């Protein structure tokens, strides 16, 4: 993975501090010139970041279309339609923010676009559905064995009644586990998306501020 803009500037700053500590004579203008070169090279490769740095654009505004698409719990819970145009813009905006690298201050890891692209979310929800199907098959099998398993001979009718009653209860409980499991998986997915969007907003704000302090 290529160094982010922030990593490059931090490395330059660290070099300047070491030179001062070792009393190595390096003109201040050399470090200023190096910083300007780093910024200009980066901005040539990332026009969006340059526009943000010059206050002609804003990541906080750029991510609004993502927030609007997943603005409610229901929108986060349901499987979205495949939208290539939306996904392309997500990759462009988040890719630019990751290139700047200010996300480390906010979340400590890259902003994974798969968490909000329609393709990424469809894969996540499909995985949840498959897990639910597998769990449902297991719970259904357990329920069937409990409800319809052939009991051994019982000495009294009461013992047989108690066995059937207990088996029916256990079978019902096993069947109830499927919707509970599926609901918990769905809820966790939505909570995870909500947390990602909160982090994204924070990262966008801080990235705007960082770039505007480093405009050339």
Write the layout of secondary structure elements.
Blueprint: H1 5-21, H2 28-45, H3 47-53, H4 59-62, H5 64-69, H6 73-77, H7 84-100, H8 103-106, H9 118-148, H10 157-212
Kindly list the characteristics that best describe this protein.
216 residues, mainly alpha, 10 helices
Molecular structure report:
This protein is mainly alpha-helical and 216 residues long. It has two domains: 1-45; 58-212, no CATH class. Helix content is 76%, strand content 0%. The protein is elongated.
Q: Beta-strand percentage? A: under 5%
Name the helicity range.
Answer: over 70%
Provide mean pLDDT, rounded: 82
Order of helices and strands: HHHHHHHHHH
Largest sheet, if any? Answer: none
Radius of gyration using CA atoms only: 28 Å
- Work out the helix count: 10
Distance between the termini: 25 Å
Q: Which of globular, elongated, flat, extended, rod-shaped describes the shape? A: elongated
* Total of domains: 2
* Low-pLDDT runs: none
What structural class should be given to the helix and strand makeup?
A: mainly alpha
User: How many strands appear in the DSSP assignment?
Assistant: 0
Explain briefly what this protein structure is.
The chain is mostly helical and 216 residues long.
